[in-house]
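testing teh design pipeline on a random one, pls ignore if ur not involved
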C-alpha cells in the first residue's frame, strides 16, 4: 500500500461482504470470547450483555451514524475520525481527542494480549509475560505491512475459522453436561439467578451504558466504514455484523457456564474458556476452538493497531508536527506507531490481571469523550469548538470523579459511564444555548 488513501480507507472499495467480515472480526476479540466466557463463569448469563450491547451499538451505527458519516467522509475526503472532528470543531479538539484515545486504546490492545497469554498458559503452561510478548509480535507483524485492505482479507479468513470453531465446539461442550437442561440444572444449584440475563437490571445497564455508545462512535469501526464503496454497503454490511453479534452473544456465556460446572476452582476467570477447550473437548476439536479464539484476538488487535497507527500518523504527526509530510512519511510513521503501540500494549498487559478490566477503561473513555461530539458533528453545523471542549472535559472529569468516589460502582443503576455521558451532553447543551443567546 503506497498511498495513504489505500492504506487508511482501502481506496473506498470495500463491498458489503468485506465490510461485514472486517467489522465482525474486529468486534469478536478478547472481550467477546474469553472476556464474555469469564463473566459467564463467575456471574452467569448476564454475560450476554457484553457482546449483546456491542451488537445493539453496531446496528445503531448501521442505521443512524454510519451512512451519515460515510457521506461526510466521501464529500470531504476524510480518512480518520480526527479528520471529522477537525472539520466540525477545529484542530485543537482533534488533538485533544486523539491524545486521549491513543492512551485509552493501549488498554484494549492489552486486553487482547492478556487473552493470548491465557490461551498459551492453558495449552503449553507458558508464563503470562512470555505469552504477552508472543502475542505482541504476531499481532503487529502483518498489520504493519498492509493497512485496511489486506487486513480486511485476513479478517475474512479469521472470521471463517472463528465461526466454524465455535459452531463445532458448543454442541460438544453442551453434551458434556447433559445439554441445556443439564447445564441449567447444574448452574442454578450454584446460583438460582445464574441463568437470568437481566438480574435486576443494574449489571445489564452497566454493559449497555459502557458498550452501546462506544460501538456507535468507535474510531476503528468508523474508519472501516470510510472504506465502504457506497452508503448502501454501510447499511447492509454493518447491520449484518450487528445481527451476527446478537446471535453470537449467547455462545461465550454458555461455554463459561460449562467451564464453571467442570472446573469450579479456577485461579482466574480468564482461564475458563481455554481450560475447557484443552481439558474437556476432543483434541482436534479443542485445537480448532483454540485456533478460533487466537484468530479472534489477532483480528481485534489488528483493528486496535489501526486506530493507534492512524491517530498518531494522521491526527498528530501530519496535522500538528509536520503538515507538509508526504504520503511516504505518513505511512512510515503509521507503521512505527503500530510497532510502538504493540510494545506499550505488551507492557500494560503484563501489568493488568483481567481482560474485562483493561477493556472497560478503554470503552468508558471512548464513550464519554467521543459520543456527544460525534453525534453533534453529523447532525449540526452550528456547534463549534467551545461545545466540543465542554462535552469532552465535563464527561472525562465526571467519569474520573464518580469512579473515584464510588470505587467504580456508581449509584445503583447510574454507573460512572452513564453519569458521565449525561454530564457530557448537558455541558454541550448549556454551552450551545449560551452561545446562541450571546
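output:
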Amino acid at each position: 500500500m503506497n498511498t495513504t488513501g489505500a492504506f487508511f480507507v482501502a481506496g473506498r472499495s470495500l463491498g458489503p461482504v468485506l465490510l461485514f467480515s472486517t467489522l465482525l472480526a474486529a468486534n469478536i476479540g478478547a472481550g467477546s470470547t474469553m472476556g464474555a466466557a469469564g463473566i459467564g463463569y463467575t456471574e452467569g448469563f448476564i454475560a450476554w450483555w457484553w457482546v449483546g450491547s456491542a451488537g445493539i451499538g453496531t446496528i445503531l451505527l448501521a442505521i443512524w451514524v454510519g451512512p451519515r458519516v460515510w457521506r461526510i467522509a466521501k464529500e470531504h475526503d476524510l480518512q480518520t475520525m480526527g479528520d471529522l472532528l477537525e472539520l466540525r470543531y477545529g484542530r485543537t479538539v482533534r488533538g485533544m481527542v486523539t491524545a486521549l484515545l491513543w492512551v485509552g486504546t493501549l488498554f484494549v490492545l492489552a486486553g487482547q494480549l492478556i487473552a493470548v497469554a491465557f490461551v498459551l498458559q492453558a495449552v503449553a503452561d507458558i508464563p503470562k509475560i512470555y505469552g504477552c510478548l508472543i502475542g505482541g509480535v504476531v499481532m503487529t507483524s502483518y498489520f504493519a505491512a498492509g493497512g485496511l485492505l489486506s487486513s480486511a482479507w485476513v479478517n475474512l479468513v479469521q472470521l471463517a475459522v472463528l465461526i466454524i470453531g465455535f459452531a463445532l465446539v458448543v454442541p460438544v461442550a453442551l453434551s458434556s453436561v447433559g445439554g441445556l437442561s443439564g447445564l441449567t440444572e447444574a448452574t442454578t444449584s450454584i446460583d438460582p439467578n445464574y441463568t437470568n440475563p437481566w438480574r435486576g437490571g443494574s449489571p445489564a445497564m452497566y454493559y449497555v451504558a459502557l458498550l452501546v455508545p462506544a460501538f456507535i462512535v468507535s474510531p476503528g469501526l468508523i474508519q472501516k466504514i470510510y472504506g465502504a464503496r457506497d452508503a448502501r454497503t454501510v447499511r447492509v454490511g454493518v447491520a449484518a455484523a450487528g445481527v451476527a453479534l446478537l446471535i453470537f452473544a449467547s455462545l461465550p456465556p454458555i461455554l463459561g457456564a460449562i467451564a464453571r460446572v467442570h472446573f469450579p476452582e479456577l485461579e482466574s476467570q480468564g482461564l475458563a474458556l481455554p481450560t475447557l477447550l484443552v481439558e474437556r473437548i476432543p483434541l482436534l476439536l479443542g485445537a480448532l476452538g483454540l485456533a478460533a479464539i487466537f484468530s479472534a484476538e489477532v483480528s481485534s488487535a489488528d483493528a486496535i493497531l489501526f486506530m493507534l497507527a492512524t491517530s498518531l500518523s494522521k491526527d498528530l504527526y501530519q496535522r500538528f508536527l509536520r503538515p507538509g509530510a508526504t504520503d511516504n512519511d505518513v505511512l512510515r510513521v503509521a507503521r512505527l506507531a503500530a510497532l510502538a503501540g504493540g510494545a506499550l500494549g505488551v507492557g500494560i498487559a503484563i501489568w493488568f490481571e483481567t481482560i474485562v478490566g483493561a477493556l472497560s477503561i478503554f470503552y468508558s473513555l471512548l464513550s464519554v469523550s467521543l459520543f456527544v461530539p460525534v453525534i453533534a458533528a453529523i447532525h449540526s453545523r452550528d456547534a463549534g469548538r467551545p461545545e466540543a471542549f465542554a462535552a469532552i472535559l465535563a464527561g472525562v472529569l465526571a467519569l474520573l470523579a464518580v469512579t473515584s468516589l464510588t470505587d467504580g460502582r456508581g449509584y445503583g443503576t447510574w454507573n460512572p459511564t452513564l453519569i458521565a455521558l449525561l454530564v457530557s451532553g448537558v455541558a454541550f447543551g448549556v454551552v450551545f444555548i449560551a452561545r446562541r443567546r450571546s
